[in-house]
Amino acid sequence: MTLQRVEVGLVSADEALVEFFAAVFELERLPTVRSGSGVVHRLEAPGTQIKVMVPSRRPASAEPAEVFFHLTGVRYLTMYVDDLDGIIERGVAHGGHVQHGPVDVGPGVRIAVLRDPDGNAIEVVAGRG
Fold first, then answer.
1. What sections of the chain are H helices per DSSP?
2. Bigger pLDDT: 68 or 77?
3. Helices 16-24 & 84-93, crossing angle to 10 degrees?
4. Does residue 129 register a pLDDT over 60?
């Protein structure tokens, strides 16, 4: 058996998270999948698919750790981009905020950590990572 693909799934109370990822990372919207439990919004870029499930019944909100590495488990996404400053600008304009950075972490490599509207941590890396 060979792993063919990994998809990231997030759960949100509404479509604000869908709008955030689509606008900030310029992801293509795929057709939604509807079921009795809710709507799955699918967003795609080459080699990546992010799914945002908006349940029929509003889910409880999780309180994110102040710093994502203070708790165990899946706590952050890493997105490699070619325009860190543009991502930060669009992220803030669409309801996110900068938690850390941007900082240089090596020759030609800059990172920032954004929080999306739901509080999820997104490490954004520009340059060779």
1. 16-24, 84-93
2. 77
3. 150
4. no
